[in-house]
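Late entry, evening session. Most of the bench is empty. Finally got around to the prediction I had been postponing all week. Sequence below, unchanged from the version circulated by S.P.
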Amino acid sequence: MENRATVLIVDDTPENIDVLAGILRNDYKLQVARNGDMALKIVAKANKPDLILLDIMMPGIDGFEVCRRLKEDLSTRHIPVIFVTAKISPADELRGLELGAVDYITKPVSPPVVKVRVKTQLALYNQNRELDRKVKEQTDVINTTRLQIIQRLGRAAEYKDNETGMHVIRMSYYSRILGLAAGMSERDADILMNAAPMHDIGKIGIPDRVLQKPGKLDAEEWEIMQSHAVIGGEILGEGDSSELLELARTVALTHHEKWNGKGYPNGLAGEDIPIEGRIVAIADVFDALTCERPYKKAWPVEKAIELLESEAGIHFDPKLVPLFIEALPEILEVKERFKESLEE
């Protein structure tokens, strides 16, 4: 019995409520409201009804207005509404349907009609909910697969550069932490975290003689190396891409820009650099400095922080650097969790 659907009956006449309740109480859990205000308060609670039987002519807020408000609210717009009315013109009937009602029942009500209409609309409602669940389930699978592909592509670029794959994982988490500290929503910070692994995907297009040169690059080689930002943007494309790939492209193009305008590829300065690029710049440099590689020792965290502080307002956003330092305990937890075997 606990799995029975809940029907909310809204009517200002007690006798009408009693009639509908008598018809439905053996099959459904019932809620009752004597006016529009009470109905909206009931629906605002956590345990929402599965269907609403709504009178039109009521004092105060009438049924049309109740329906309009329900359909404007994302948390209640999915609940099917059946108008129950004594008399209605074709124009009023059309108005109700345009507001989002699914059906009408005419007073005085016929018990078999009420039962069939309610049963039919609840069946459609449950069918739609199950369809939404399956769509969400498949969407989650697709999104998970896409994220895994993006992470692996990001790691592929790092391996080509003699980096280790864990770098992109760590700096992605650092980016999320800093994004939240900077005021991003959970959703936007998550998208940034999933876009960040692609920041250096353009290195795939850089010749090994340049990318893996052990010594200092000459002017021509440095120009070639800098082109990886533009190559990354081209790989990730633009236009009708997904939100995730659009952000990944932004990050690839802007994470080497500098606050003072002396970065590359476009010499952007200050807040003209998208905040996602400014965030990833800090996360990327901090992880690169503090991790050991075959060609260098890891910097102590304190020394890396000193560099970030000294470059605030020059290389890095001066407002983001203090936020990164404030979040250092969480940053270091991530660093430990995803440490390299080289460092163990």
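Two things to note before I forget:
The radius of gyration is 30 Å.
The beta strands are 6-10, 29-33, 51-55, 81-85, 103-106.
Will write this up properly tomorrow.
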